[in-house]
């Protein structure tokens, strides 16, 4: 086996990129006067950046982080779990790390998941709208 096959190269989400993602998401939240927390995690689920807008409930801090981690851990939007739950598939509640509420999205760059964004503070569909705007920064 050659040494060239032992390791792969992968992109990494930078703090600068995380700040741009949060800025785009924040602009969307402010446009609608939605008080939210926005969290960005790397591909290991570790928090890179977090912003809590004025007048946002502090309970949304941990929820935003967990939405981002769930999106990263399962490599899919958290809306998927919310939809399964609403169709009566309660087994999703037993899966470790699942947060069945829209607002968590994987961040994709060049067809690779490099992290995730999580938003919490308003209706889950609104959290999802904000997250989608933030995620488009990498497109």
* Share in helix: 25-40%
Rg over CA atoms: 15 Å
Number of helices: 4
Q: What characteristic shape results from the CA principal axes?
A: globular
CATH architecture assignment = 2-Layer Sandwich
Termini Cα gap: 36 Å
- What characterizes the major β-sheet? 4 strands, antiparallel
Overall number of structural domains: 1
Strand residue content: 15-25%
CATH topology: Beta-Lactamase
Low-confidence stretches: none
Structural class: alpha+beta
Rounded mean pLDDT is 95
Spatial sequence of strands, sheet with the most strands: 2-1-4-3
Query: Helix-strand pattern, N to C?
Result: HEEHHEEH
CATH top level is Alpha Beta
CATH superfamily: Haem-degrading domain
State the total count of DSSP E strands.
Answer: 4
């Amino acid at each position: 086996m050659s040494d060239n096959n032992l390791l792969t190269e992968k992109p990494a989400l930078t703090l600068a990129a995380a700040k741009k993602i949060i800025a785009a998401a924040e602009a969307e939240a402010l446009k609608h006067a939605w008080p939210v927390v926005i969290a960005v995690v790397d591909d290991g689920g570790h928090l890179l950046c977090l912003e809590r807008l004025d007048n946002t409930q502090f309970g949304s801090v941990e929820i935003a982080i967990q939405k981002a981690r769930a999106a990263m851990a399962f490599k899919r939007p958290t809306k998927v779990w919310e939809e399964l739950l609403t169709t009566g598939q309660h087994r999703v509640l037993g899966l470790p790390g699942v947060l069945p509420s829209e607002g968590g999205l994987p961040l994709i760059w060049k067809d690779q998941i490099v992290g995730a964004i999580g938003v919490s503070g308003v209706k889950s569909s609104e959290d999802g709208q904000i997250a989608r705007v933030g995620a488009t920064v990498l497109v």
